[in-house]
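Tutorial handout. Part one gives the primary structure; part two gives the three-dimensional structure as tokens.
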Amino acid sequence: MTTVEDIIRAIQERPEVREQVRRAILTDELLALPQRFAEFTSRFDDLTLIVQSNTEQIAALTSRFDDLTAIVQSNTEQIAILTARLNDLTARVDTLTARVDDLTVSMDALTARVDTLTARVDDLTVRVDALTARVDALTARVDDLTVRLDILTARVDVLTARVDDLTVRMDDLTAVVQKMAEIQAEHTRAIARLEDKVGILIGDRLERRIATILPPRLTQMLGLRRTRITYHPNLMPGSESEFISRVEDAADAGRITDDQEDRIKQTDLIVHSRRKLDGSGVWIAVEASGSIAQRDIARASESAAALRSVFDDDAIAVAIGYRIRDEDRARADSDDVIVLIEDEDAP
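Part two.
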């Protein structure tokens, strides 16, 4: 049973359900009221029979009293006997009257109890009527909700169909986007490979140019003399054997670490010169890149530090390229790395 209509139908059609509902709603005292009222009715009927019997007896006595009166009138001699019998009858009537008075008191008490029960039944009737009204209102609300639920169900069905259609379209779009992403990834890889190749070409071109333009430029800018390229593996293979030997000896002696040795060997260009002012030797570690970035600045600085440890001379870090961002230039200034910007269109 899930609705109020089902509950009402079950109460009307199934006595055992009606009995269970009655016991759930009514108190034990109210449930016992019909039986107690039946007992009262039975006792009242018995009392009625007794009163009727007494009435008949009184009527008979009255008849006999009339007969006695006639007899008294006709027979004076029997007056004393009749008087005695009348006195006895009077006593019996008094006793009967007292019993009737007691019965009247009992009836009054019973009547009061019946009035109380009647009031409680009336109150229960009012409560049942109120409950019925609330059930009717609830039924109306359930009916309204049922209608609204049907409307909502229809709307949900429409939305479900639209969502299903959108899902199919989204799956198609996802497939297209995935295909485009694959194409984009392939293009990105191709562009990266192209950029690497272009970077290599630009780097090679720049490294070849700096071998020519950098020594005189550094000489003039830093006040140097006798500036010579000491290490340029791409342009001077095999000519740096003495320089490399001294670097490896320093590593063997523990003056530099293996990482510092590798850093020196990976430097794009190393120049040795002397200061015009005091003739002291100075090493210049150069990193060349089309676009100077933090890694180029760090490499140049690390190479210069390693050269100082190998030769016990001063060393200068230089980063040369075609462009540099402001934040990278600030980093270079902070690390004491000289930045040289070349014209990319220069021959």
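Part three, for discussion. Residues 195-202 have pLDDT under 50 and may be disordered. The first strand starts at residue 224 and ends at 231.
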